[in-house]
Amino acid sequence: LEKMTDLVAIWEVALSDGVHKIEFEHGTTSGKRVVYVDGKEEIRKEWMFKLVGKETFTVGAAKTKATINIDAVSGFAYEYTLEINGKSLKKYMENRSKTTNTWILSLGGTDYRVVLEKDTMDVWCNGQKMETAGEFVEDGTETHFSVGDHSCCIKAVSSGKRKEGIIHTLIVDDREIPEAVE
């Protein structure tokens, strides 16, 4: 395996199907550009006469659009920024925290990452979109699914406050799981 001598940037991007690692190699003498997603080579360009520019590729099961921008800062110094769906990584993650809930839990020695996409009510667990059953209950809704032989339920209840909106709670085997901050 060739040593990644021109590795200039590494980002971690939390999506519904998991946390993805993006690595970027930039040879500032040859203009070489290589993009790896989760260790797999996505783009390789050996000789580029233009040292600035952008590389666009997709990440994860939902094929989320990602772009690495290469900008000259001064002389031979470069700045690398990652955009996800056209937003800076920071903006994307801030927005994502409003549109998703994430829980990390351990069941029988296995770690699970459960993500709720609030707009679609899709539930993901360790990279797989789950089969769910939704039902209306007295104080809101419940979305039921299973992880292994564990029964899981995401309860959606109004907070009663307009600013807070709906509160989502994950319950596994009658135990409330605290939300994770990614």
Q: In terms of topology, how is this protein built?
A:
Elements: E1 7-15, E2 18-26, E3 33-37, E4 40-45, E5 53-59, E6 64-74, E7 77-84, E8 87-88, H1 89-99, E9 100-107, E10 110-117, E11 122-125, E12 128-129, E13 133-137, E14 140-147, E15 150-158, E16 166-172, E17 175-177
Antiparallel strand pairs: 1-2, 2-3, 3-4, 5-6, 6-7, 7-8, 9-10, 10-11, 11-12, 13-14, 14-15, 15-16, 16-17
Keywords: Apoptosis, Cytoplasm
Main location: cytoplasm
Protein name: Fas apoptotic inhibitory molecule 1
Descriptive report:
The chain is mostly beta strands and 182 residues long. It is built from one helix and 17 strands. 16% of the residues are buried. It is elongated, with a radius of gyration of 20 Å. The protein folds into two domains: 7-85, Lipocalin (Beta Barrel); 99-177, Lipocalin, CATH 2.40.128. The two termini are 32 Å apart. The chain has one helix at residues 89-99; strands spanning 7-15, 18-26, 33-37, 40-45, 53-59, 64-74, 77-84, 87-88, 100-107, 110-117, 122-125, 128-129, 133-137, 140-147, 150-158, 166-172, 175-177.
